[in-house]
Design goal:
The chain is built from 4 helices and 49 strands. It is mainly beta.
Length: about 550
């Protein structure tokens, strides 16, 4: 709002009064900056050019008709009621106000009338000025769309009744600040659909959508027919997302089936709680994507997120596919409601170089990594039942022969009972424990698929992938299986012995070898130490529980 009076400003600029029934472009003939005082309903017939720095001051009327107001550094001084008709527009960046009210374009905020049209008209007219929604309830049934550099702030509530996206971001440098975004358990709260770079998104609450934040960049439908689209360098902050899925990433939309490159890279996600059935989900890659390439999901940072369930159900906090070089800091899963131990809390497939720091107790068997390279987990894990050695770092792997991408067909590899050698590249410090749990049930037990696993210099390697082991190793073998472990070179030099926590299923045994020589067999649950006797012969010692 302008604070200068008409008397004061008339000394610097021309003043014209636009009264009831006037046509604005007949009045707009001044060559210098002019204040137009609108005190009655007037109309616009065609385009009108206002001198730079001109002011539209409303004292009880509105501008209707059809046309475009042209100019630069134009200021609007008006109360919060509708002052522009539906067919009155402005050229880009004409308005110089830092903030404009969506009510000037007809928004009601009464929770009864749909306001999406008025809000979109305000965004188009405002250019890079902030469009402001007051602390009221704005009802919408179509998407509010933000393009290049556009800004929207809602101090109240946007209640979306449609099935698409309540808010869609299509271009870079968008700014979005929302107090509360409500849905009807359909569609998306915020959809990142185009080439969205350097956006700032800050939302207090997103409630009752299928997807809270939906990253589905669509290359084929972008302006100028570009084959590239993605979300990058955005800063996204929320307090609470209560939806079926909190953060959803899908690069394999049907519009991207050929000759396209899409990505979600190098963004900052700052929680906030995800009260969701599915917390963070990367969609399955679709089959038969002819000529399709993707830079996938990499370089993103997820900070301080708590997972707590939605409508009494939490299925999976994190499901990653084809995600590389991402960081997850200070995750909290202690409120995860799903107690089904057969459902992973964290699941990764075809991922690499992801790091996760977990700030709550997570059972090792609830973490699953398949076809992965260099996954680093840290935090507070427990084995959920045995009660020993809580607080160590552990990793649960299903089917070691397929846990990393290999040049051979994984089914062939399994049937041939290949020996997977474990090679070394670095040593972990003592008293750090990592686990190798092979198989989940008798049906997928790796013991029937991999003949021999060797721990050389405390580092595990399967084909081109690795998992760090230390001088304290936990190994699980499930029912009716035999696993051969070769400790040659593992207890020489820097590490004179290996300590193993063994969980041996019924009818199973762990065969321990030093090269070709068998040292002994372990057939009962317990803690064991592989060390040397006085004659320097290697032996297995049962430790006191």
């Amino acid at each position: 709002m302008l604070l200068l009076s008409v008397v004061m400003i008339s000394e610097a600029i021309n003043v014209q009064r636009v009264s009831q029934g006037d046509v604005l472009n007949r009045k707009a003939n001044a060559k210098i900056a002019t204040m137009y005082i609108i005190d009655g309903d007037c109309s616009l017939s065609g385009d009108v050019s206002l001198a730079p720095g001109s002011i539209l001051k409303f004292e009880g009327g509105m501008i209707s008709g059809s046309g475009t107001i042209k100019g630069s550094r134009l200021m609007i001084d008006a109360p919060k009621y509708q002052i522009f008709g539906e067919n009155v527009s402005f050229v880009k960046d004409a308005i110089a106000n830092g903030e404009v009210s969506a009510h000037w374009w007809g928004a009601k905020g009464d929770g009864k009338n749909y306001d999406c049209g008025a809000i979109n008209r305000a965004l188009q007219a405002a250019g890079t000025s902030w469009v402001v929604l007051d602390n009221l309830k704005y009802l919408t049934n179509e998407s509010i769309t933000l393009g290049e550099g556009q800004k929207l702030r809602c101090d109240g509530t946007i209640s979306y009744r449609g099935s698409g996206a309540a808010i869609e971001l299509t271009k870079s440098y968008v700014n979005l600040e929302i107090n509360k975004l409500l849905g009807v358990k359909k569609g998306s709260g915020v959809l990142f659909s185009g080439n969205v770079y350097h956006g700032n998104i800050n939302i207090n609450e997103i409630v009752d959508f299928n997807y809270g934040l939906n990253f589905t960049p669509v290359a084929k439908t972008r302006v100028n027919g570009s084959a590239n689209a993605g979300t990058q360098y955005c800063d996204i902050t929320w307090q609470s997302i209560r939806c079926n899925t909190g953060i959803y990433i899908d690069l394999w939309n049907k519009e991207n089936l050929s000759n396209s490159t899409v990505w979600v890279n190098e963004n900052q996600f700052n929680g906030g709680r995800l009260l969701c059935a599915n917390g963070i989900v990367v969609a399955e890659k679709k089959k038969n994507l002819n000529s399709y390439t993707a830079d996938l999901i990499n370089g993103n940072v997820f900070n301080c997120i708590g997972f707590e369930g939605w409508d009494g159900t939490l299925i999976k906090p994190i499901t990653l596919r084809h995600a590389w070089y991402n960081e997850f800091h200070d995750l909290r899963m202690s409120e995860a409601l799903n107690t089904n131990v057969n459902v992973p809390l964290i699941e990764m497939d075809d991922c690499g170089y992801n790091t996760m720091n977990i700030k709550s107790i997570v059972p090792y068997q609830r973490i699953k990594a398949v076809n992965c390279n260099n996954i680093e987990l840290s935090g507070s894990f427990t084995d959920l039942g045995s009660g020993f050695h809580k607080g160590y770092d552990r990793l649960y792997i299903v089917n070691a022969n397929t846990m990393y991408r290999t040049p051979t067909n994984t089914k062939e590899s399994a049937t041939k009972n290949e020996t997977h050698k474990l090679l070394s590249s670095r040593i972990q410090s003592r008293n750090m424990m990592n686990s190798l749990y092979l198989g989940r049930t008798a049906k997928d037990n790796v013991g029937s698929k991999v003949k021999s696993i060797g721990f050389n210099d405390l580092f595990a390697k399967t084909s081109d992938g690795t998992m760090v082991l230390s001088d304290v190793v936990e190994i699980g073998i499930y029912d009716n299986s035999q696993l051969i472990i070769d400790v040659a070179n593992s207890i020489a030099g820097i590490c004179p012995e290996v300590e193993m926590r063994c969980n041996i299923g019924a009818g199973s045994q762990l065969v321990v070898k030093n090269g070709t020589k068998e040292i002994g067999r372990i057939e009962k649950v317990g803690s064991y130490r592989i060390t040397f006797n006085e004659a320097r012969d290697m032996r297995i010692v049962k430790m006191t529980e």
